[in-house]
Every structure is written in C-alpha cells, then in structure tokens.
Amino acid sequence: MTSTVVVGGFFGDEGKGKIVSYLAMKDNPAIVARGGAGPNAGHTIEYKNKKYKVRMLPSAFLNKKTRLLIGPGVLVDPKVLFNEIKEFNTSDRTFVDSQCGIIEERHTVEDSSGRLKSSLGTTGSGTGPANAERAMRTLKMAKDINSLALYLEDVPHAINMALQQNDRVLVEGTQGTFLSLWHGTYPYVTSKDVTASAICADIGLGPKNVDDVIIVFKAYVTRVGTGPLKGELSPDEISVKGWKEFGTVTGRLRRASEFDFDLAKRSIMLNTATQIAITKLDVLFPQCYQKTSYDELPDNAKRFIKSIEENLKVPVTLIGTGPDVNDIIDMRQSKNS
Ligand code: GTP
Ligand code: IMP
Ligand code: MG
Q: What is the pTM of this model?
C-alpha cells in the first residue's frame, strides 16, 4: 500500500488535521499532498502541548522529512502560504504546482460581503470568487507570481514518480463530503467538489493509483455557516453535551447534531471509503480520554464503534481519544488493512 487519501465525511472540521498529522509521523510518507478548495480550510493540530493552525500547508508539517505539496486544483493565497511557511519553517520542503490558481485581495473582499457572506455564510477567504474566475479562465496562476518562483513544482509528476519508486504518498482532503458543489446541500456548499475523486484530481492522482481512502467522521456532526443540518441541537443542548466548538478560520460557533448514520452511509458510497477514522470519541465518552488501545475503552464506547461498523460495513481503524496527535487508537494492523 503506498497511496492513502484522507477525506471528510460530513461538513468539514471532522479533525482531518490531527489524523493527517498522526499518519505523517507514524507512516513517514515521502510526500503529503493537499487537495481541496484552498485557504477556506482550517485545521487545528495539537502536539506536545502546542497548538498549530494551518489553512494552506498540508497538516503534515510536524514530520520534517516529508515534502509538502499543494496540487493544481487548490487555490493558493500567497500571503497565507508565506506566513505558514515562515511560522513552521518549511521553506525547503514546500512546493506548489505551477497551475495552482491565485487568490487576490479583491477575491477576499468580494467573499466578505453581499450574498456570499449573508446568505451562504462563506469563510470570506476568497475561494468562491477565485474559482469563478478560474472557470472564466481569467484567474492568475502560481507561475504568474514572482514571489512563488522558488516554490514551483510539477506536483502530479512528483506524486506519480514517488509512487513508481514505491514511496508512500499521503493525500489530504479538505472540507467535507456534504460541502461538495456536486454532492452537498447546494447552494450551501463550497465552490468545488471535495469528495475523494475530486481530491485525487486536484493533485493529479489517477483513480487506479489509490490504495486506501480513509474517511474521517467526528463522533457527532458539526456544521459552520448556513445550510440544512438534520436533527440540529439548540446552542443550550450543545453546551450541555460539551460539544461547543468554534471555527478555525472564522471563529464562528459550530452548529451540531448527533452522529448521522444516513449521511455517513452516503458519504461512504460517494468516497469509496476503505477505512473509517472516528475523532472525538472521548468527547462522547469521557472514559476514553487518551486511551491508546481498543481493549481499554468502556463498553458504551465499544458499542458505538460496533454500531458504526455494522451499519456502514467499513472497518473503523483509527479512533481519536484526545486533542494530541498521539491521543489515538491505531487498529490498522490488527484489522489487516
Ligand atoms: P479539519 O478541518 O477536519 O482538519 O478539522 P479541524 O481541525 O477544523 O477540526 P476541529 O477544530 O473540530 O478539531 C480540531 C481540534 O480538536 C484540535 O484542537 C484537535 O486537537 C482536537 N481534536 C481532534 N481530534 C480529537 C479527538 O479525538 N478528541 C479530542 N478531545 N480532541 C480532538
Ligand atoms: P466557502 O468555501 O468559503 O465558499 O464557504 C461555503 C460554505 O462552506 C460555508 O458554509 C463555509 O462555512 C463552509 N466551509 C468551507 N470550508 C470549510 C471548512 O474547511 N470547514 C468547515 N466549513 C467550511
Ligand atoms: Mg477545519
């Protein structure tokens, strides 16, 4: 197995950042490549009592040996990218494809007002307006921007060469399945498809070269911004359950509902998931906190995991039990995947 794609199963913010960070450190891939929309994504990663927030770089920067690539389907905001390269000191191993579209100031201005903000509740990061221009074929690309010259790479070529040499490639999806422009709750969606097929197209990985698709579900569902959310809880109910969360990019309070098996089933179908990662199990069952083996979990938590496997017919191989990258139960070996 050499290529693994990680995608979000609900509305984004499932905790993909932590899962990708863990896999990057555990499996040591030669490349971690980012697909998805652009800097509308936000990931919070906690490692050894430090918190890191990223919007552009792949969430694998904690592994200093891994090359961090951004595929041509991803929009780049150079300001956000340069800040992160500096903050995480990744200048020598960050590369963007020369065909990445570029977000300019006017895109973020347009995205922060009018219908996009008030009705759709976008992140204001400029991705929608920039993708609209990409469709009109007027958008600037990375190769048109002088300051990016040192970081340009043919990302599809690099990925496919690595796979030919039997090197591991980890692919990071962003957003979540029901934010997809094709498969989500239109018009309350992001500006492109974000299911596994699209994430692979974003980085130039053909469908026959994918070995595993890990779908990430949080133990409950959250959604930030507008659009339908079946079984939505009131802010008071969310507080009582201890599910209060704020968006990484916008700081908005996240809406929430219980784990939704119907949505999860559809998500498994759309992404051809081969493995499931469940995050925040400890938030649902506090006795799970920081456990690293399945046997240590309380019975109610085991029943929850079993019900997911029985309903969705896909093995749960990774379970998040706390905020740190290493607060995780890794059952990939024992489940023979
Ligand atoms: P993606 O956008 O999917 O990458 O997720 P996100 O980073 O936006 O997700 P969110 O903000 O919900 O999760 C990030 C926060 O939750 C970080 O502070 C993580 O450390 C923490 N977190 C991730 N997984 C777990 C888990 O299994 N248990 C607990 N308690 N915290 C977690
Ligand atoms: P846009 O992608 O900024 O255009 O926003 C469109 C919708 O997708 C809004 O509801 C956003 O809140 C949501 N969205 C976009 N990216 C993310 C993400 O990474 N996590 C959660 N929601 C997102
Ligand atoms: Mg997020």
A: 0.97
